[in-house]
Each structure stands twice: as C-alpha cells, then as structure tokens.
C-alpha cells in the first residue's frame, strides 16, 4: 500500500512539470506542429520498416527480433529529447556555443581517423563506444558547419552593418566548412562530403553572398569531383558503384546487385505493396543494408506506391515547412540555419531515395528519420529542434 | 509577395530562398515520378522478376511408367543409378570456370579430365558431340555409372566439389528380357528441347526442363501416359538460397504402365529367326547377279489374327536402345544415324516398304471376283502372256494348263493374273480410258493399301497403290527430268525415261499386267500385309494393328484397356473368302510353301496353315523375299530386302516361329508344354493391390531354352547341306516375276537332317547353306 501511495506522489510532480512546459502556451502554440508530427510519423514508420527488415536477420539482431525496433524507438526518443533540449536552449543561445561545438565535432572526426575509429562498408567513419553503441561524428559535423557558417555569415548582416556578407566573411565561413570536410574525405566518407558541399551551397545562397561565390563554389565542386576522379582518390568500390549506376545491367551479381535488387523490391510493390512483413524481397534478405541505407525499399515493397509515396510526402512536409521557416525568419542567422537544414535534408532524401530508385549512384547516406542509426537520428532531430527554435523565437508580428 | 514577412531584408535572399524551395520541390517531384514509374508503370515486370528471384523450384521427376509385355514382363523400366552431375551455373562462378573441380572429379571417376569437360560444355553449331544439348541451368550428367564409393567420395567432400552432385536417379532401362530386343518398337528417350518446351508450355501437359521425351516407338506414342507428371515443390528462398518458406506446389504423379500385346519370348524368337534367316541368305548365291544376297534389311510381324494385336515385331538391322540412356555418345549416334549405318532406328515393319510380289495375289484374286470372274472358273496358266510383242513370262515359264483362281494362288501362276488384269484394262478403255472400273486398284485401296494401318507407332508409312491418280501426280512431278534424260535409242534407263516422258501419266497395258502380281510401282509395308492376312484368317475384318493393350495407372486402380478396333472389311464375299482360305491352305500343303510346312512335318490337320510366298523384283537390286502366312490364331508376315525368294529366304524362319508358338516338334507332334503361346494371351497380367504388376520369370535367352544345344555345337550347324526333298529347278533369269519354287536352300536340309536326327528339336530346320 505504501508503495502505491509513493508511486502516486512520485508521479504528481512530474505531471506538474510537464504541464508547466505546456503552460507556456505561447511556446506550444508557436511550435511548428506539421514538422514535428511529420518527423514523428516518419520515425515511427521507420521503426516498422526497420523491424520488418531485421526481424528475421538473426545474424544482425543477435537473436532478438525486436533488437532494431527497440533501438530505433529509443533513438527516436533520445532524438525528441535532444530536440526539446535544443528548443529549450534556443538557436540563438547556441550561437555563442558554436566555437565549442565546432571544436568538439572536429575533434571527434579526427578521433575517427585514429585507431579508435572503425570501418563499416568501406567508410572509416565510426567510433565504437562501449555497450555495442557506435557514433558517426560526421552527422554532427553537419550541424556544427551549419551553425558555424550561419554565425559567421549573419553576424555583420544582422548587426545592420552590411546588407550581405562580404568576401572576407564568406572566405572565413568556407574555411570553417572545409576543415571538417577534408577530414571526412579522408575517412573516406564521400557521401557525407557531398551532403556538406550541398549544405555549404545552400547556406551561401541563403546568406545573400555574391553570385560569384555561388558559381565559384559550383565550379570548384565540379573541378574537385574531376580531380578526385583523376587522381584516383576514389576507392575501387566507389568507382564500381558509379559504373553500376551508369549501367545497372553491369554485373548484376556484383556491384550492380544492390541497385538491381532494390529496384526489384520497390518495383514489385505496385500500388499497395505486399503488406507489412510480407515482402518476399525483404523477407528473403535480397537487399543489403536494408534497415539503414536501403530502408526505403522496404516501404516500396511492403507498402507500395501509397506507403512509399507517403514517406516522400512527409519528408516533403518537413522540407516545405523548413523552407517557410527560412523565408519568414527576420534575422539572417535563422534563415541561414533553416536553409542549411533544408539543403541537408533535401539532398540526403533525394540521394537516398534516388539511389534505391536507380536515379542516383549508391552512397551510404541514411534517409532522415526513417533509416536505422543513432547518430543520424540524433542529428536530424537536433536539426528539427533548431527549426522549432527559429519558429518559436520569431517575433509574433511575423 | 504577401507571404514574405516584413523582415527588412533584401529581396536577393528572398528570391534565392524561393529558388531553393522550388528546387527542393522539383527534387521531391522527381522522386515521386520515378516511384510511380517503377511501381505502377513497370510494377508487373518487377513483380515477376521478384518472384523469379525468391522462388526456387525443386522438381521431383515423375518415374516413367514401364512398358510391359503381354504377361507383365518389363520390356522397358527404370533402374536406380548413381548419377554424377555438374551444375554449369555453379562452375561458371569459379575463377577458372570450374576447371579445377572438373579435373578433380575426373580423378575420382577415373575419367580423362578433357572427357569430363567435353560432357559439360554446351552444344552449338561448332561443338561436336559429346556436348550437352539440354538446358544450361539444369545439372548436366557426367556419368550415370558412378560406383557407390565414387559417389561417397564426392558427397563426403562436398566442399571440394562445389557444383557437383552425386545422387541416385531413376534411369530408363531396356531390360531385353530373354534376350529380346524390341528396339524399334520401344523407341527411345532424349532430353526435351527448348522448342518443345515452349510449344508445350500452354498445353495441358507442359514439359519440365529435366524431362526426357519419347522420340520414337511406344515411348513416343504413349509418351503422355508414360511420362506422368513431375512434382514441383516451390520454395521461397532468401538471397543465399536458404529456404524460408514453401510456396504453392504441384504434387507429381508417376507415369502409367503400358501393357503391350508383345510377348517377349515370341519377340526374341522372331528377332533371332529373322537374323538367322538374313545371315543364311547372305551365304546364298543369287544366280541373277552372281553375288551372294545382300539381305540388308528385314522385318517380321506376328499378329493375333482375331484382334490385330501385335505379338512380336522385329526389324533388322537393330540396335541397343540402352545406347540412348544417359545421353548418346558421338560414336553411337553416328552408328545409328550415319550414312553407313543402314538406319537401324527405322522400324522396317511399319516404315519399310517394298513391292509385295506374289503375296499381293490375294488382292488381285478378290479384284477379279469383284470384276465378275468366277473364282472356280478355268483360266489359262500358260508359260507366257503376249501383249503387243511384249512377252510376260510365267514364273519359270511353267505351263499348268487351265486352272482355277484358287489353284493359281497355290501355284502362284502369274499368267492367269496377267490375263485377267489385261482384260480388265482393255474393258476400261485401254490407253484411252472411259469411266474405268479399275477393279484391281479399287481392291488394293479396299484392302487398306496406300494408307496407314493405324498402328499405335509413330511415323508409319502408307506404301503406294500405283493407280491412275498416282501415275498422273508422279508424271507431273518427274516429267521434266524424264523428258530431259530420255532417249529413244539410248540405254535401258534412257529408253524408259523416254517412254515415261511421252505417256508416263497413262496406265499402260504393261503397268496393269505387272501390277496384278504385285510388281512395278506398288509398295506395301509388312504391317499392312500382316493386317490383310489376319483379316483373311478372321473372316474379313481388318483391325488396326495395336501394340498397346492397356494403360495401367501407377496404383493399379485404373486400367484403360485398348480395345481392338476395325478399320474395314475385306471386299470379299464369305463364300469367296472361304475358297481363298482353302487355296492359301493349299499353298502350305501342296503349293509353293509346302516344302516349308506340309512336306516337312507340319501338322496341317491339327493346325491348318495358310501361306503365300512372294518374290518381288526391284530394279537394280536383288529380289525381295516375302512370306505371308496365317493360322486361325496368328498371322505372320516376313520380308527380307535383297534376300532372295519368299519361301526360300523367309520360309524356315516363319516355320520356326510357328513351331515355337504352337510347340510343334520336327516330327509334327504338338507338345502344348513346349508351346510358347498356343493361344493369344487374352487376359492382362495380374495387378497386385499396390499397383505392381506380376510377371513370370524369364529365361536368360529364350532361344537357348528352346534349342538348348543350338549355340553349343556350331560345327554341326554348318554341316554341308544336301540337295533333296524338293524338285530341283533352275532359276529363271529373265522372268518378269519369279516365284519361290527355286532350288531349295536352308530348309532343304530339313529332310536329310530330319531322318538322321529326328529328336534334335528345331535344330535340323535351322540348317545353314
């Protein structure tokens, strides 16, 4: 009996705190609910797809069919908490913490290059943590690049000194982004580098930096890509992936296998799919990396055009609202952060879904919210937190 | 721009944000469009590809039904052999295309590595045998004669032999019970081709990749029933081929068993006697060509007279049907089909055709009666018949005076038939026919000549009745060549061509005259003649010859009997038929075949024998021997191409077959205990409740059993033969038609030997010249 009363009494204050949070009705009301709900829906949908992809992969789930499901839900929960934390702190307050965050993230990716890092699928981009967890610092670098560049580029514009960032500021911002990008390239995690390049491009566009910078960066990106190709920095497996992308019929049992099987899985789904847990391609483990990079194929096969389309639509909602946030924020700092996140999410979505549909080459990028993976989940939820913070702190007149 | 808030910011940023938004939207739209394209537009194709991806078919081939003889003895069944196969798909995955594995395999099997590799290569236009002409996705048998030890070696070290399997498999076996061969009747199997696979795809009995298909004989005729239906288990598999579930499966049904009317013992005797007769003929001198007879091919049919069922059917040259089992080797294939092979795959009983000679005279007799001539009338059997300066001689120019048609049959008098046919030809308008009656040609058609008998064997040939229509067609097809090569004063061939060019489309007097005694362009098959003589025996009904007697389901529960069906009646009245029957009995008792029957101990009173001999001329070749016989139970027709005369070459063999059937000994005693089949086997073999069919024990060699010391003392067998017993005659070298009363040959020894060794059953008849 005493235990029971203790429980009741213990539950009371927690409820009170929760209520208090929402009692600040201004904040709850100002939250961008479509983004939040779409992101939650994507994460939950993702947990189902991840579960479907892994429930009978005993070699991965260590005999526990719910292993990935529970972890995905746990990651989502932690992500939500991180979002709340970010909203609580506010993106403006984080501006002051940028040097620390940036330094920490660069330190972490440097750590990956040391023997502490581990290689998964040809990319040396993980840090193994005790307890079976692992960390992919490049995911967090995306956030610090956004925050850092936004801080630099918006500082003088928001102060009213200039209408646009000057060349020196842009150069500084680019320098800030280049350092972690070079490190990530050494891993080599080309997919993440590509995301970062797109983020930088989006930020420069949104910051109002001179057209010369935008086109210059585009030119440099092309030149860089050519150089990477010519100088043989790419590994054989990366060249093979591009070759297989260019010609899917090439070596269907080898490098073309992923794309081929992914397309068969999605294509066979038809309008309504084979039903959750009933996809033969999924059950038969024909698509590799199906809980992470190729999670979209589960949706395609088991939920069909309707389910897979829903995922694209939900991501569309997130991106649409994020664009709206970027446009309706009075300060350039908020705009640039939101635009960076749009560029990040948009490119990663397009690349991830595009590769499963055979219109983009295969790279190891997760689908935001849906793919299994802690670091990615945390990063995208923190980004949602930033978007919410920008919305919440926007002047009411907007 | 109402939705742009008052941010006090420049429009450059706002414009760029709109650009970003449009870009993002178009990216998402691209994804949506592509998704629609893959899932809705091409969804069906991918769905199909997906099912091909994850469904693995495991085929349990249906056990092919057995082919049994009338008593249940298996002529063709299955045996379990250890088959070592190689999967090409697995081998090609290896770096060296599996060379190392195959070499290792060759070591285990004691074969040459090159031989093994040759066996698993695929056939194409440039690749000679051995090669694999089945599906490349099907395991290719390397050998079906692996020993248990070899199979164990392969299976125990599976990791050393990736892609190699060693499994017991049911393999067709042609058991040759009692040394009977029955090759052409049974036919053979070979793997299904891609074409057939496609063709049968949408029928009610589609083939499987692994199927063996009957290619000839009964195996082909009854393929559908024998084949059964293979069971297919479909497994859902994962990417590594591990089974994760079972999909819709088709249970298989083993093939039905075919009970035939063949009696393996009689079959063996028939084959043996045919071969012996041909061997003997090859030692006989042909006075026309001054060479020994070629005896290059022959056939014999033993038919139940009252049903048309075939008790034995032998064709020579023959082959071992087991050569086809497990894939035929290049050498064997050439031996069976090459130019030098003499085509042993042909069943001469149904696919061999030749001019019938005098055994055709039953047709001419019936035609004459139909045309109004009295069977018992008196007709001139002169030594020759003269038409417009052309002399048609009687056989050996014998002059028998005025005789009846019946007697003409007995003596095989040609001139009687010449005269009748020529008279009819004249009545029909001669060279300018007016509504011709063509009684002689009509009769041939009514006897079933020029048409298939309908025997249950594939690719039966029709033979030919050279009637007016045929002459016209043939002339139109060949006149250009004839007119080109023909010369009025050239060689014999050129003169013939010249004549043919002028009037080859017309029925000439000589054509009709030759035709009346079965010479000229007439072609018949042994099975046609057996059908006709069986019909004469049974009162006039022509049955479709059948070999299949019943199809018994594998569980023995349903038995579909194949009833004898008639395809016509002989165009002879009952009374005429009775007279003809008597005349043909006369052939055996006092006519041209008497020296094979009545004169050498045939119990004519107990088992009335009827016979007709025939010796047909073939331009540029030696004569064809024909011998057509019947009792009330059986009709036996034998022919030997380039074998000599009817009773001379074929007579002893036919007599020996009858002896074996009825158990007749040399002194004419009938011993039912020694008889193989004194009455046709009417009942089907006993079928046990579990579906197995009981069969009696077969001796190793039926002939040895019947003639215990046949092979034991070959020297005696080749003892010199004395002339005697038969009136010696000289062969007529110029005769248009020679019959069979030639100097005695093999059988001639009978009389002499009989006296000295009356007890040696059968042996004496088997004398060799």
TrEMBL record, chain A:
The EC number on file is: 2.4.99.28
- Keyword Mitochondrion part of the UniProt annotation: no
**Record pathway:** Cell wall biogenesis; peptidoglycan biosynthesis
Task: Name the enzyme's class.
Answer: transferase
Per UniProt, subcellular location reads as: Membrane
Q: Does the keyword ATP-binding apply?
A: no
The family database entries (NCBIfam families) matched by this protein are listed as:
rodA_shape (TIGR02210)
Protein name as catalogued = peptidoglycan glycosyltransferase
What is the organism of origin for this protein?
Streptomyces hyderabadensis
Which gene is this protein's source?
A: rodA
TrEMBL record, chain B:
In what residue span(s) does the Penicillin-binding protein transpeptidase domain sit?
A: 298-658
The reply on keyword Secreted is no
Q: Which compartments does it reside in?
A: Cell membrane; Membrane
UniProt biased composition (Basic and acidic residues): 698-714
Q: Where is the Penicillin-binding protein dimerisation domain?
A: 60-246
**Pfam families the UniProt entry points to:** PBP_dimer, Transpeptidase
Alphabetized SUPFAM superfamilies for the sequence: beta-lactamase/transpeptidase-like (SSF56601), Penicillin binding protein dimerisation domain (SSF56519)
Protein name as it appears in the record:
Penicillin-binding protein 2
